[in-house]
Amino acid sequence: MFNRNKKEAIISDGITRRSFFKRIWIWLGVVAGLEFVGLSLSFLFSGKRRVGTKDLNQVKVIGRLEDIRPGSVYPYRSGQLYLVRMADGGFLALSLKCTHLGCSISWNEDDEKFICPCHSSEFDKYGDVLSPPAPHALDIYEVIIEEGMLKVDLGKKVKRKKFEKTDLTYG
């Protein structure tokens, strides 16, 4: 019903059009605020692993020891790593992700170094930083040698500052 003396329309329960729209905007603001909080929480906790859970699928078989020649670097893209076999027979499983911003590195056979295409960080075959902006050495994964087979546990990523001889695994 419309009251000609007033400039606002009055809905049957005595609510004005202005107060009706005001309530709508308040509820829309509440819904938007809840969505923002929900999205923020899901973003903050999306990468967290549950403590105590172990995924058996994280141990990947790379191959037989005799098939991997000393002094070589093999990309294992589906496992997100490079497998390096040193001249003395030691193994090192390096993460594909640059420690600067997480871009995928690539191995340059001619220069014998890893190069990040995003910001030109360079790493040697041990994963140590040769050229910044990468803040520290490449992360490594645990290498497991069982019955002549080489395996890598992708669930055990180790962050490190630089290469140490104890990082190598011998078979």
Question: Any chance you could write out the topology, listing elements then pairs?
Answer:
Blueprint: H1 17-44, E1 59-64, E2 72-76, E3 81-85, E4 91-95, E5 106-108, E6 113-115, E7 122-123, E8 129-131, E9 140-146, E10 149-158
Antiparallel strand pairs: 1-10, 2-3, 3-4, 4-9, 5-6, 6-7, 7-8, 9-10
**Major sheet: order of its strands?**
1-10-9-4-3-2
Helices and strands, in order, run as: HEEEEEEEEEE
CATH H-level homologous superfamily name of the largest domain: Rieske [2Fe-2S] iron-sulphur domain
N/C terminus separation: 89 Å
Helix content: 10-25%
Question: Would you kindly provide a brief summary of this structure?
Answer:
The protein has 171 residues and is α+β, with helices and mostly antiparallel strands.
Mind explaining what this structure looks like?
Helices cover 16% and strands 29% of the residues. It has 1 helix and 10 strands. The mean pLDDT is 82. A hairpin with a 6-residue loop joins strand 6 and strand 7 (122-123). The chain starts with 16 loop residues before the first helix and ends in a 13-residue tail after the last strand. The longest helix has 28 residues, at 17-44. The strands form 2 sheets. It has a 6-stranded antiparallel β-sheet with strand order 1-10-9-4-3-2, with no helix packed on it. Strands 5-6-7-8 form a 4-stranded antiparallel β-sheet, with no helix packed on it. It has one helix at residues 17-44; strands at 59-64, 72-76, 81-85, 91-95, 106-108, 113-115, 122-123, 129-131, 140-146, 149-158. 17% of the residues are buried. With 171 residues, the chain is an alpha+beta fold. The protein has 2 domains: 1-47; 56-167, Rieske [2Fe-2S] iron-sulphur domain (Rieske Iron-sulfur Protein), CATH 2.102.10.
